[in-house]
Amino acid sequence: MSGAALGLEIVFVFFLALFLLHRYGDFKKQHRLVIIATLLAWYLCFLIVFILPLDVSTTIYNRCKLAVNSSPAESNGSYVTLAPSKQKCFKPWSYIPNGIMPIFWRVVYWTSQFLTWILLPFMQSYARSGGFSITGKIKTALIENAIYYGTYLLIFGAFLIYVAVNPNFNLQWNQLQTIGIAAANTWGLFLLVLLLGYGLVEIPRSHWNGAKRGYLLMKTYFKAAKLMTEKADAEENLEDIMEEVRKVSESIKYNHPLRKYVDTILKKCPTEYQERMGRNMDDYEDFDERQSSYPSEKSLVKLHKQVICSVQRHRRTQVQWQILLEQAFYLEDVAKNESSATRQFVHTFHSQEPENKIIQYFYTPTVEWYWECLLRPWFYRVLAVVLATFSVIVVWSECTFFSTKPVLSLFAVFIQLAEKTYNYIYIEMACFLTIFFLSICVYSTVFRIRVFNYYYLASHHQTDAYSLLFSGMLFCRLTPPLCLNFLGLTHMDATISHKNTQPTAYTSIMGSMRVLSFIADGFYIYYPMLVVILCIATYFSLGTRCLNLLGFQQFMGDSEMTSDLIDEGKELIKREKRKRQRQEEGENRRREWKERYGNRDISTRNRVVHTDQKESSFSETNTNRPLSKYTRSNGRTERDRIELLQDAEPLDFNADSINDDPLELDSGRYQPGGRYLSMS
């Protein structure tokens, strides 16, 4: 089994990263280099999280083997004896031979650092550039990153000059490498604690609130109101950009030198706008060289960039609106089915996507009712309690992991108890659950945060290339300090445990942090305590309240603005539900008519056509006979009646006669006769 566990996890993590990237990215439309770079960044970060427990168990076995083979007199205090010299050490099932892990960590770590500090920032600017050629995009990316790279080079150059001038410092290459690693980890730890403090509270709370049906439905209404505003803004912005494209397309004719750039811009526009512009364009008119009102190439590059961003935003809001509608309809169905006496789940609308037959066979309406209306709330409550317990343990360990006598970190206590009995399965499971929970708290925050339209990870293939690359940068910068923090919590880092024991292969490539004692003994130990303050601030929603005061509407139960947006979202969902019902009723009527009168419809149409042809030929020879006039009128009436029955849709019903509100909220937004009043 030597190395088999490592190979299995390498393959498993690759498909996990590929699955997540497929959920957020679009393999068909986005550039292959963007997909490959993001996949590599996510893959390396997830790989570090999954492989580190194997490194811990292998290190514990090596310590045991070294302690058994070395007597106390021969060791001279170099290694701490973990077991009596007569005790045998059992090799773990996932043991990795010596020499593999240091090379593996060195390749993974430096590749991720190359991605996050050099390649991904450059690709961000390249992907966001509006240039029309590869050379133009590279030039734009270099200019945008000149300040970014120049700042780091200036800081590093000033540090080298200080070291060269000061005679007290005699730094070698290994020490300079360690200082660079420490600087990168310090920046990552600063951001890590901020994200961790939010995730430790928000993840258990979101699962606890997930058991509240009324809470989820009201939050969905709130999201609908906000998303409708964003959707309207995206449509208006797209209209403005398309109007500029139309003017440019009309001014630059077919034989203009810049026409090829305009054609490139037109290809990025939606299809309906392309057809509209194509009809209004006259390519036979030559351009006038003496005219000076033509746009420049620089302005076309800017317009190209605006078109890409506006089209992406418009498409994303359209998809998110449909997804949110399905979610709202389903939550309303759950609220209605909770009081069902038949205990069978009934959907208001049929699923638009074909369902798997295997899932339909096992997930019957009865099973769905018991899960959604009875078991799922309790499952979410139990899961929230378990996650909250983990969060309390993490907060306690973050504040006490520097204490070695006595050992106060609970994670260190668990690992040391398993280390005495060499229970490697327990050690690996405890390490995996610990680092996996820490990763979920940090990574989920990265997926949730949104910086206006600058950074936003949207599921269902709606994330743009810039946000995907930015997420890869964040993962590569957060994962190394996350792993070092985990090793500190479990006292597997000699810098924390203050024991001269064999280090893990991961900490060996980081070098000795004693080169910068104020970071090793100060910042790394005491800064993680800030997570307590961040957890308290997140629990009382201080950040949400501040954003709400600044004008960014956030979901708060005690806010008047939140109540107004909930009411507006509720009306929007009702309007979309009526529209969906009219569509389904119209389709059902047409389907029933075809099933019942399909053959008669065909025969009637043939008879009408034959009669019309006969009428036409007969009326040409004798137009004064009244029979032909009567027959023609009768045929046209029959044909109109058939087409009317085929295309008929039900009229809008009166909203006062039907109560589709599962929460029985304020429904005073309807006037008699089905009139709809919007708050927007």
TrEMBL record:
InterPro entries: GPCR-associated_LMBR1 (IPR051584), LMBR1-like_membr_prot (IPR006876). The keyword Coiled coil applies. Keywords: Coiled coil, Membrane, Transmembrane, Transmembrane helix. Residues 604-617, 635-644 have a biased composition (Basic and acidic residues). Belongs to the LIMR family. PANTHER family: G-PROTEIN COUPLED RECEPTOR-ASSOCIATED PROTEIN LMBRD2 (PTHR21355). This is LMBD2 protein. The lineage of its organism: Eukaryota, Metazoa, Chordata, Craniata, Vertebrata.
